Amino acid sequence: MDVAILGMLMTPIILFLIFVAPIWVILHYRSKRKLNEGMSNEDMDRVRDLARQAEEMRDRIRTLESLLDAEHSNWRKESR
Question: Where are the beta strands (DSSP E) in 1-80?
Fold first, then answer.
């Protein structure tokens, strides 16, 4: 009885050690290496582009708010 249970448990453990564990270890250390490398040039360009877009949006929002303030001074209180 004990041999049968041991046999049933050994098969999944062996399959895990042969297939899953090596892939898991490889992916783990590859992600660690990428984190240690920092951002790539492409990532830095993307961050700069997003920062520029955020500044443009901030300027547009300020312009829209100033137009709304000029036309309808209580719009902030009424929108809540």
Answer: none
CB 10 within 8 A of CB 2: no
Q: Please tell me whether residue 75 adopts helix, strand or coil conformation.
A: helix
Q: What is the pLDDT of residue 80?
A: 60
Is residue 6 within 8 Å of 13, Cβ to Cβ?
Answer: no
Instruction: Return the C-alpha torsion angle 44, 47, 48, 54, nearest 10.
Output: 180
Q: Is 79 helix (H, G, I), strand (E, B) or coil?
A: coil
Q: For the segment 52-69, what is each residue's pLDDT rounded down to a tens digit? A: 999 999 999 999 999 999
> Residue 22's closest CA among 32, 14, 34?
14
CA–CA dist 50, 47 (Å, integer) = 5
